[in-house]
Amino acid sequence: MKTLPWLCAVLMAGVSATAISVPKQASAEDSLTVVSWGGAYQESQRKAFFEPYAKTGVKVTEGEYNGEIAKIRAMVQSNSVTWDVIDIDTQTALAACAEGDLETIDWKKLGLDRSKFIGGDLQDCAVPNIVYATVIAYDTTKLNPGPTTIGDLFDTKKFPGKRALQKNPFVNLEWALIADGVPTADVYKVLGTPEGVDRAFKKLETIKKDVVWWEAGAQPPQLLADGQVVITSAWNGRIFNAMKADKKPFKIVWDAQAFDWDWWAIPKGGPHVEGAYKFISWSSQPAPMAEQTKYISYGPANKDAIPNISPDVLKDLPTAPDNMKTVLIVDPQFWADNGDQLRERFNAWLAK
Amino acid sequence: MTAVTENIGLDIVTDRDALKRRLRAVERARRLRALVLVLPLFLFIIVSFVIPIGSLLRQAVYDPTIRQYMPQTVAALGAWDGKDLPDEAAFAAVAGDLGAANKAKTIALIGKRLNYEISGIRSKILASGRKAEKLTAGPYKEAMIGIDKIWGERETWSVLKRAGAAYTSFYVLDALDLGLDADGHFAATPAERAIYVTLFLRTLKISLTVTVVTLLLGFPLAYLLAMLPTRTSNLLMIMVLLPFWTSLLVRTTAWFVLLQDNGIINDAIQFLHLSDQPLPLIFSRFGTVVAMTHIQLPFTLLPIYSVMKTISPSYVRAGRSLGAGPFYAFWRIYFPLTVPGIAAGCLLTFILSLGYYITPALVGGPTDQMVSGIIAQAMNSENNWGKASALGGILLIATLILYFVYNRLVGIDKIRLG
Predict the structure, then answer these.
(1) Residue in B closest to A104 by C-alpha
(2) Engineered SS bond to A130: which of A33, A255, A298, B285, CB 3.0-4.6 Å?
(3) Cβ–Cβ gap A344/B195 under 8 Å
């Protein structure tokens, strides 16, 4: 019975091992494989964490993935863990932790004060790393005046043209309800009922023919830059990066943005668990966390990092008080329970 | 005299027998040598192809989660007739199993499996596990229903019983937009969630369209290549092969750049005043078929070309000299000779097209996504390998059926790659 998942797992692990194209290092604690999401985000981690940390004598080998839980599962089940530290999203971390694929974090061993971390007590197997927001953004040269509320995303009369949304029910259904008049605080209560789900889909239906669906985080700034869409949903750091690094005339609308986390986690049974703890502990210190905000506008999860950030940068972070007024805090528990069915329904809805 | 003849006859017979034996020995040795030579390949195919694919496909019908992590419950429900709620023993078994699973951290796997069939039950199972671990004495029926009212519902138990069997029809039925109700009767998936049948039909339709378009474009080109002098045809062939050697992703991205609203093609159309608005070239069926056709064209073209190369020009010349017109000679003599190549090229393109997912995801719209995209999603992000295997298995079986029909129509022995 055991052989079959095991065999598949070996194959999957083989594929993922070649995907990062890094052979397992024989030397014990002087090397570490850290896997993250690529793009501008990993670039910021490289500058703030990986390169400075390498100066302490540990060689950091980087890998990229797209948050595929299957890859982690395959490695753990086949006892061939080659990833020492992973950057993981909330829902995947919860699922992987509950299903026994991640090390339970010992905060004492990390030497960190858990209460200093935003959302630090939300997960057993992960350390909050940054907070980010799924926002809507637009091109100021195309729309002037631009949208100011999430309702405007759904208002094709006031703002005609295509909009890009993530190809996932996640966040879109919440926004549809808010735009339809549901108070932000009640979104998950309403979405938990069949009528609420119908209502959300009905609202999405009103803009369906105007939507382009994106899948990778790098797509939305590109779609906006190409003029393929006039408004897009995106992770705030990606838009910020396009504005800062590529001087794009974009603007972020801070209304009903979906507030969420990224986490550090350690796949269970890896060869460098001690080294992974040291790395996570080091990169969660206020100084490197503040350093990261220079390269991407995600909020450091360590509250102690905030005084180290210049006010100029601070105002663009999802944690800035001005940006937090109408924030929507994503409920990972809701999505763990209802995600499968809502995704199925969403896919069916898209296909029609 | 007769004795001599008999002796000679005997000699001949023994000689013949000896010869036969020797011949057989030699042939056996040769067969053995051949077998030893193919053995590595044979083993390689078994180990790297047949076993993994077979075991993955098995996951479509085999899911031991509940059996493994709730053994007492499965045993207790064995005798349950499914009419009313089960007896006290089953409730005690569930309480025991959930408590143990909570301790062993396997409860999330149970919750995840049941959540496929009953939306939102995952967190209720997790909470039940936490509370059930503290239960020490009965009656368990009231206690469990008190913990959560899902335990007072017949559906929960019938799903539990069905999921507890070693082999399950759930994933395959789900992949066909079907399910079983609490009484074990077939029930169609609610229309708002039914998607897979549409998806399979669409996958076949897109693949067929791409096959036909590549044939319409590829056949004349192959004819031209086969007719031109070698120097010119080699040059043209390189132009066919160059994109063939380029990565699929690169070519798809190139189409993305070309087809977008502010891309070269739309700009040109608007510059020529053929249309006032950008045409929906991208995120549409049109874009998907164009990009897939570009990628698949060499697969259809090359077999046709290599078959055409083997057709002697004297056949058509003979036909012409006997009075056939140019079209008649082509259609009655040349074309039938190319059919084996057409059959091979079309089969290759059709089957490869069934597996596309990156191209439709990048240049297609939401109504152009194909089955493989959903399989990848089930595998990678939902970690639902049962669903992925069921969808993959159905696609495989559908392909085999089509192959069988194709064989009947064209005859697989007639297919030639050159």
Answers:
(1) B105
(2) A298
(3) yes
Segment B31-59 shows an average pLDDT of 92
Query: In this complex, is the C-beta atom of A15 within 8 Å of any C-beta atom belonging to chain B?
Result: no
Higher pLDDT, B10 or B417: B417
Shortest CA distance to B283 belongs to which of A250, A163, A217?
A: A163
For testing contact with chain B, the best of A340, A341, A343, A346 (most B CBs within 10 A): A340
Amino acid, res. B68: Q
Q: What percent of chain A has pLDDT above 70?
A: 92
B405: which residues sit within 8 A by CB, 6+ positions away?
none
Confirm or reject contact between A215 and chain B (CB < 8 A): yes
Report the gap between the CA of B121 and the closest CA in chain A (Å). 7
Q: B382 pLDDT exceeds 90?
A: no
Residue in this structure with the two tokens 């994106």, named with its chain if needed: A214
CB contact under 8 A, A351 and B202: yes
Residues B306-336 have pLDDT tens digits of 999 999 989 999 999 999 999 999 999 999 9
Taking CB atoms and an 8 Å limit, are B380 and A68 in contact across chains? yes
Q: Indicate the CATH number of A3-131+262-320 among 3.60.10.10, 3.40.190.10, 3.10.310.70, 3.10.50.30.
A: 3.40.190.10
Q: Is the pLDDT of residue A199 over 90?
A: yes
Which residues from chain B sit within 8 angstroms of residue A8, using beta carbons?
A: 52, 55-56, 59, 385
Judge: A69–B380 Cβ closer than 8 Å, yes or no: yes
Q: Does domain B196-414 have CATH number 3.30.930.30?
A: no
Measure the CA–CA gap between A5 and B64, rounded to whole angstroms.
11
Helix, strand, coil % (nearest 5) of chain A? Answer: 45, 20, 35
A99:B192 CB<8 A: no
CB contact (8 A) between residue B261 and residue A228: yes
Strand A328-329 versus strand A126-139 pairing type: unpaired
Amino acid, single-letter form, for residue B26: V
Contact A351 B109 (CB under 8 A): no
What does A112-152 look like in DSSP terms, one character per residue?
A: --GGGBTTTTS-SSEEEEEEEEEEEEEETTTSSS---SHHH
Buried b (16+ CB within 10 A) or exposed e, B184-209: eeeeebeeebbbbeebbebbbebbbb
Question: Does A352 contact chain B (CB < 8 Å)?
Answer: yes
Question: Mean pLDDT of all residues in chain A?
Answer: 88
Q: How far is CA B371 from CA A210, B10, B183, B205, B404, in A?
A: 24, 71, 31, 12, 21
**The one-letter amino acid at B397:** I
Judge if A3-131+262-320 and A132-260+324-351 fold alike in CATH terms: yes
pLDDT in tens, A121-172: 889 999 999 999 999 999 999 998 999 999 999 999 999 999 999 999 999 9
Chain B residues with CB-CB distance to A98 below 8 A: 105, 107-108, 111, 126
Tokens of residue A89, six digits: 């999203």
CATH superfamily, domain at A132-260+324-351: Periplasmic binding protein-like II (3.40.190.10)
| Residue pairs spanning A and B at CB distance below 8 A | 106
